[in-house]
Amino acid sequence: MSRIISVIPNDDYTLLIEFEQGSKILFNMQRLIKTIPYSSLKDLNRFKEVKLEDKAICWNSSNASESTIWLLRITIDNILFMLRD
């Protein structure tokens, strides 16, 4: 599986994701942010705080007062599976 080398969040809740082999996809997150786990990403500023992991994209917890940090995370496999729909 390819590694993600960059992710660019856009104002229309899409992510331009570039992989190490030069492939790029435009991943539309509009449907996903309507679900409970990702609903905090409706805030565009929060959505734009996307970070990279080797084979995933993620966002830090929306609640800074939490004693434990949790991530919203989408792996490459999840992204490719959702693109099939």
From TrEMBL:
InterPro entries: DUF2442, NE0471-like_N. It holds the Pfam family DUF2442. Keywords: Transferase. GO terms for molecular function: transferase activity. This is GNAT family acetyltransferase. It comes from Clostridium kluyveri. The lineage of its organism: Bacteria, Bacillati, Bacillota, Clostridia, Eubacteriales.
